[in-house]
Amino acid sequence: METSLNDSEVPSRQLHRPVSFLVVDDEQRARKSLIELLNTNWTDITEAEDGEQAIALIQKRQFNLIILDLNMPTKSGDQVLAFIRDNKITTPVIVISGEASINKVTEAMRLGAYDIFRKPYNFDELEHAIRNALDKSRIEEEKSQIQSRLEHSEQLHRYMVDNSPDLIYILDLEGRFTFVNNSVKRLLGYDKAQLIGKHYSDIVVEEDRLKAEYVFNERRRESRSNRNVELRLKCIPTDPSRPFEVTTRPIELNSMGIYAVDASEDKEVATYQGTYGVARDISSRKEAEKMITYQAYHDLLTKLPNRAMLYDRLDLAIKQAERTGEALIIMFLDLDRFKLINDSFGHVVGDQLLIEVAGRLKAEIRTGDTLARLGGDEFMLLLPQPTSREQAERVAQKLIASMQQPFYLKKKEVYVNVSIGISVFPDDTDDINMLVKNADMAMYEVKSSGKNGYVFFNDKLEHAAAEKISIESGLRNAIKNDELEMFYQPQFDLRSERIVGVEALLRWNHPKLGLRSPNYFIEHAEESRIIDQLSEWVFNRVAVDLFSDKTFQDSDIKVSINLSATDIRQKEFPESLVSYIEDLHIKPSRLEIEITENMFMSDMQSCIYKLRVLSNKGISIAIDDFGTGYSSLNYLRELPVHTVKIDYSFVSEIERSEKGAALVAAIVGMAQGLGINVIAEGVESTAQSEYLESLGCNIVQGFLFGRPVAVNDFLGAVATQHAKISTQSSA
């Protein structure tokens, strides 16, 4: 029975058919979120948490669409795609992955993924792709159904061929077209009549003709024939104003020879009749690959090359420099105060600033130079074949000058500077990673010495960096190996001649260098965040050394402990400290926290709040090294300060000059006028002691009254004082 086919009949049959999904992702939150979005349009959704479970589900039932992650435990997304391909499963697969590797993404596409989206994705775009995939799957399914019903019908074959999305053709013995389907118009712009009788090479791009000679006019059959060969075909120009413009379309070609088989006298003779081929449009895939490649080698915010491209070009430039014996320059650039702008205006404005900064920097370099964004506010500039270090200096000066004009963010003028570290190949090193590291090291030298400038790498920086690493590593081992020690220096009241306070002093008993004061290691401890462990160790040791001793507990001697700026900057610092000393059974009234003046300069209001929390709990606050920082009456008036400690550098001038003595007198008078206690540090002579006592500064600390000593020696002095007081009381 002959079957007729209406063009509109096929789609309408399955217009309302149910659609089943399989969502495969090892991240439960990502999986559940996607299912919730899909549920707005579809309800039959199955989920799998890894590739092995997905394969098991695919073997049990058929799905209309699979949404697949790449990186998963047990079996990866690539393995699932390979299983689908090897088992000739036609279900379309859309990949959603956070994978940034171009090789992984390209491999997924080659394994048959219909489309690919990178996390985070736009659901509207994903939904559009899903509907396209379902439509395509439906068309493919309908073609299969029609073919099975009308397998021997010429009308069916014509319908399938002419309505195929692929270009289908037949060549004669000489390579001329004898048949092309209707898709040739859509893909290449030709009418079928324009190609019939023409040689295939007329529509092949000239650069691909040699390859086309072996694959387009294929003579081999079955497994020996060509599969998935990529070529470019010429298209008829679509722009009437540019009639001679040659446009191309990438295609993926499958072709095989057509043979007629004659059987005579029990022998089959195959005669070549021509070539049958299918050319599939891969424009979308090529565009996707192009975009993926671009994203893999560019910073998407500034459109500058990223770290990967920079290293590729740097590697090439180094090889070129090695051949020619020339030098090249690497500059590491870091914006100054960018974090402050980000925090003040928000990340959207911060991103806009980075775009404008990139534009200014790029305007100052040559065409052959490479400016890359490494991330955050860090940039790197490659200068191949510079003439001299002087040229590099001129470039650095131009880059710094380009930042001097204000940027306008939310109608406000904003200024940013740039710190630049410079490394020279091969003078500094011939290793690519060390070259970048050296430039980074030089940049941090600029940061530490005032910012907004440039510095060339030198051996001193390398030595300093090595020493820094050594100190940081040594500190970590010091905590583990019990190399830290506490010493205690008493504070005397000149009137009562008694110990009224003690300063707890941390020392590092270095296995090679001996005892080291915090001046040697505290800065490195703060940078590496080891300071948190050191502060905790100090409080624990003070609790064990002093507050576990009954005689000391019964006294009213206060313990002074130095805190670092890093401690105070912690958001929950005051509450955490109060809770901690309570756990250690240290009475707040027995504790005095020492801070330096520069600690509260960066964020005055926050520091005032935190210190008031401590003061309200009964903990005393002392300013150490008073007069050496940014002291002013305003700070003393606003901060909850109980004590100022006159720095030893001022005390030592009492006997040397009248100005030095007058300065000490002024500090004492100012503190007394504000009702603040005064302690003089570094008292080493009787003359200094008598002068301080005459000013009314009665609490002193220094070698004249006692050096820093081990805990047993200090507790011995406390016991002696306690016994003396007891004797005097009984008398």
Number of domains: 4
Question: So how many helices?
Answer: 28
Q: Which shape, going by the Cα principal axes? A: elongated
Q: Please tell me the CATH architecture of the largest domain by its name.
A: Alpha-Beta Barrel
Query: In percent terms, what proportion of residues is strand?
Result: 15-25%
The largest beta-sheet arranges its strands as 18-19-21-22-23-24-25-26
Helix/strand-derived class? alpha/beta
User: How does the major sheet shape up?
Assistant: 8 strands, mixed, barrel
How would you explain this protein's 3D organization?
- By secondary structure, this protein is of the alpha/beta class.
- Helices cover 44% and strands 23% of the residues.
- A hairpin with a 2-residue loop joins β9 and β10 (267-281).
- The radius of gyration is 40 Å and the shape is elongated.
- Residues 1-16 have low confidence and may be disordered.
Ordered list of secondary-structure elements with their pairings:
Layout: H1 9-13, E1 20-24, H2 28-38, E2 44-48, H3 51-60, E3 65-68, H4 77-86, E4 93-97, H5 102-110, E5 115-118, H6 123-149, H7 154-162, E6 167-171, E7 177-180, H8 183-188, H9 192-195, H10 209-215, E8 229-235, E9 247-264, E10 267-281, H11 283-297, H12 307-324, E11 328-336, H13 338-345, H14 347-363, E12 370-375, E13 378-384, H15 389-402, E14 407-409, E15 412-414, E16 417-425, H16 432-448, E17 454-456, H17 459-480, E18 484-493, E19 498-510, E20 514-516, H18 518-527, H19 531-545, H20 550-554, E21 558-562, H21 565-569, H22 573-583, E22 591-596, H23 604-616, E23 620-626, H24 633-638, E24 643-646, H25 648-651, H26 658-673, E25 677-681, H27 686-695, E26 699-701, H28 711-730
